[in-house]
Specification:
With about 525 residues, the protein is of the alpha+beta class. The protein is built from 16 helices and 21 strands. The N and C termini lie far apart (about 45 Å).
Length: about 525
């Protein structure tokens, strides 16, 4: 697959051209990028704009799991589990350099937990069928401690081992964007959708603003998809106001944000490549301890939040919950002093709707597709694992409403993402420290970059920074240290020390302000412990 350059001057020049697109997408997270790739692969003329960087919001702040949804099985939602298991396999096959199987163990501290959870996980295996990643196993106490050497031994009865998937979320988002570009899509980050364009009461495009220059552009499109995640209501409100004169009721909020917190500590707290999962903590929430890129992620919480901050901070009770619950299951309990980074993501939970427009809760209860009277298509909810199925649902609805032609679906089922392919060699686990392996079959291209042998820190070279600027849409220090590499999410203090040098390289490559002071300030957010 061709490695295309992503110089901003070229992207903006394309945006300024007088084209009529088939579909214009607002939002460069998992959902919007999935729609862009599917539409472009079907031959539609596609443009996507993102107000910040690709995956800046929720899509870079996941628990890094590609899963079928064990919890939904307990709820009896068999169809949702089947869909997620199918999509899990598809994702692992299409991006093997970014998504891989991962074993999990549920430790049992009560006699009934092993048979109770084990039977449910055997059902999980049965639903997966040939798409299964490994057989569920009942473990005795010694086997559990051998696989989870840092598990608290006092009172341990045994455990259950099962398999799900793990991935690098921000780099997967980038792979979606770059793969869509190879199919002809135009994707522009740091370009804000300012308003919608109407003709005879119907949406016919949007105006957008290059946030780096303030320059505005008009995009004409047969269909506009609002895929801004937790922020979809902003565009929906503008659409409602534009159509207020036809007797339409005020647009109701679609999203009820929920906050998820993740804490990163050193690998020694888990001691291996097996994840720990507690399906029901003291207050009924789930706790994970997941090995990822040489560190361990502890999480997660699920707390309602009313504001839509781009960089939300954790609440004290959330940090206390994760650390206190971890202490109940780990031999050595992490403390605040052990935290390398902490990040918060806002999840777009969908409120029940009785919208005047066409309300479609797609095949999956996890996501919702709405089409307003003006023809604005909004999609939100869902999860990373099912991004591809969500994209198909969106394009199905666009065809149903005659906004797009009904072209053959399923084109992305076996579509390898950029970096995947027969030339991938020397693949390492995603739980291993970061390195060149995350580039898949683009490794050689990265190694030919100037500075490829100049190591900034483990897993990051000057050549990787230049590759990010030339081929991965990066213009700011944050783009590189938070999402092209994941250093901000792994070790915020170390990331802060590299900001100046990374900024110098980016400025050489792009001629744009890499915003070094802004990043150094941001890094403090990832160390904030209330």
């Amino acid at each position: 697959m061709q490695t295309l350059p992503t110089q901003r001057t070229h992207l903006i020049a394309q945006l300024a051209q007088d084209h009529v697109y088939d579909i214009a997408i607002v939002g460069g997270g998992a959902t919007g990028l999935g729609v862009a790739l599917d539409a472009a692969a079907r031959g539609f003329k596609v443009v996507l704009v993102e107000s910040h960087d690709f995956a800046k919001g929720t899509s870079s702040r996941a628990t890094k799991l590609v899963h079928g949804g064990v919890r939904y099985l307990a709820q009896g939602n068999i169809s949702l589990v089947r869909e997620a298991l199918h999509e899990r396999t598809t994702l692992l096959n299409n991006a093997p350099h970014l998504a891989q199987p991962l074993p999990f163990i549920m430790p049992s501290y009560k006699w009934w937990e092993t048979p109770f959870y084990g039977i449910g996980l055997k059902m999980y295996d049965a639903l997966a069928g040939k798409a299964g990643l490994g057989k569920t196993e009942f473990l005795n106490r010694d086997d559990t401690l051998a696989a989870l050497p840092t598990a608290l031994p006092q009172g341990l009865k045994g455990g259950v081992k099962y398999w799900d998937g793990q991935f690098n979320d921000a780099r997967l988002a980038l792979a979606l964007a770059r793969t869509a570009a190879t199919h002809g899509a135009l994707l522009v980050n740091y370009c804000r959708a300012a308003d919608l364009i109407y003709e005879a009461g119907k949406v016919t495009g949007l105006t957008c603003e290059d946030t780096q220059t303030g320059q505005q552009y008009r995009i004409q499109s047969r269909c506009v998809v609002n895929a801004a995640g937790v922020w979809v209501d902003e565009l929906r409100q503008k659409d409602g106001l534009a159509n207020a004169g036809d007797g339409r009721r005020p647009t109701k909020a679609m999203v009820a944000p929920s906050q998820g917190v993740h804490i990163v500590v050193d690998r020694e707290f888990l001691g291996g490549d097996v994840a720990l999962m507690v399906p029901k903590t003291a207050d009924g929430r789930v706790l994970f301890a997941v090995p990822w890129l040489g560190k361990v992620i502890l999480g997660t919480t699920d707390t309602p939040r009313s504001d839509l901050a781009r960089e939300p901070l954790p609440f004290k009770e959330e940090v206390d919950f994760i650390l206190n619950e971890s202490a109940r299951y780990l031999r050595r309990a992490p403390t605040r002093a052990d935290v390398k980074s902490i990040w918060v993501g806002l999840r777009p939970l969908v409120k029940p709707q009785d919208d005047d427009g066409d309300n479609t809760k797609g095949i999956s209860r996890e996501h919702t597709v709405l089409v307003s009277r003006s023809g604005l298509v909004t999609v939100t909810g869902g999860k990373w694992t099912t991004y591809r199925a969500m994209a198909e649902d969106v394009l199905d609805k666009c065809a149903e409403k005659s906004l797009l032609e009904n072209r053959q679906k399923g084109v992305t089922t076996h579509l390898k993402l950029i970096g995947a392919g027969s030339q991938v060699s020397g693949q390492q686990s995603i739980s291993s420290p970061p390195g060149i392996h995350s580039y898949g079959n683009e490794q050689d291209a990265v190694l030919t970059m100037p500075g490829a042998t100049q190591v900034l820190c483990e897993g990051l070279t000057e050549g990787m920074v230049r590759f990010a600027a030339r081929y991965e849409y990066a213009i700011k220090v944050e783009d590189v240290l938070a999402r092209r590499s994941r250093l901000l999410f792994l070790d915020a203090r170390l990331a802060s020390t590299l900001a100046v040098r990374v900024g110098e390289i980016l400025q050489e490559e792009t001629g744009l302000d890499p915003e070094v002071p802004t990043f150094i300030e941001l890094a403090q957010h990832y160390l904030y412990l209330p």
